[in-house]
Specification:
The protein is an alpha+beta fold. The protein contains 8 helices and 25 strands. It starts with a helix and ends in a 17-residue tail after the last strand.
Length: 430
Amino acid sequence: MPESDVMFEGSSLRKQMNVELVSSSVFDKLTDELLIETLKHLPIKPANLCKCVSIRFRSVISSSYFVRCYVKHHQINNSFAFYYQSKPTFHNMIRPSLMGIDITFAFPIFESPGFSLSFLTCSEQQKQETLQYLASNNGLVLCCAALRRPIVYLVCNPLTKQWIALPPPPSNVKTVYVGFICNPQYSCNDDQEQGSKTTFKVVRIEVVNCESPRQLSGTLKLEIFCSISGKWTEEFFMSSSTSDHELFYGWNYRCPSAVVCDGLLHWDTLSNSGIFTYDPSNGECRTIELPHEIRKPVWAFKYCLGESAGRLRYANFSWDDTNYRVWELKDCEWLLLHKVHLDEMKATVQTINKDCMGLLSPHPLNQDIVFFWCRSSCRIVEYNMGNKLLKLPCFLRDAKIISLLSPMFFPFVLPCWPTVVPRIKQHDVS
């Protein structure tokens, strides 16, 4: 090699080393408090990427103290997405690699690679497998490989690509109402990222045949998985009301998963009895009666139950007076928030046919917004209760739903900091 090239390479190497030394010295002059104060202002994705800068950065960002500071600074989070069925599939199943197609969002954080479950397919056999998206809460998703025997449930974080498989449930019944609740907490152990004390529970309620002997006994069996124990247990709800016994004697294909609100699980069934509620902290069950104006059964796409900014909401359309109504549950009573006649709703887009709309969900964060599905244009539509305007949402990706029935529709709200998927104890299956 010519001497001039050697001198040039040596000069370039020295310049690179000098830059690294300068950069290193700049960060070294910052205390951990100043570094945390700087990094906590970053959006969630760049903040996590900063772990790759140095060992010190990774240590600081992985500490539970940084997480607490970050969450406190970003108390108001406005990032959410919706998972929906764009096309009808067998039992709402889809291959994980294709699941990203059925996601609509308004925030760039879900882009590249976006909200996907393709990381669950490790082997060639799994790549051909189909999954059911069942529920999400506090950044974690519950899905099911229902075609496996026995049934396999998976809990994952689509953004961090962490996941675990749960042991098989006590029964292999597929037709069940499911509930999933996650409680992310961070300990004072700053040694590693696993300082997270996240816990979760999965609840299964079997759909009971009307001819079942269990109808006579007045009991309802709940199968519950707890991440702390790593085991499934069975609990029995004894009711003194005959109407409560009929809660799960029918299959509501639209609402197989519970709505989580205020730490409770809420199921909207086909029964006139009301909404079945389970408290995972103490195992208590009760039934919340629907507003007296509600008369079920009604068309599935003409009502919905959901959570908005920490409040439980119920919306429906009445054929009697062609009015949409929205209620909110407060102190165990339903308060009518909004009532609007079909003719009062002002559409800003010609493709929105008000006569062909079905209710999907209240907005998970904005209390003024309710989402509809327009069957004629196959589009998701948002309605503002304040100005009574119907319009297409400002999603970054087109949300087209081709279905004769109301589609499965799940909101996913991104927490201020990624929820760590906890490890569960492994038990031998007898």
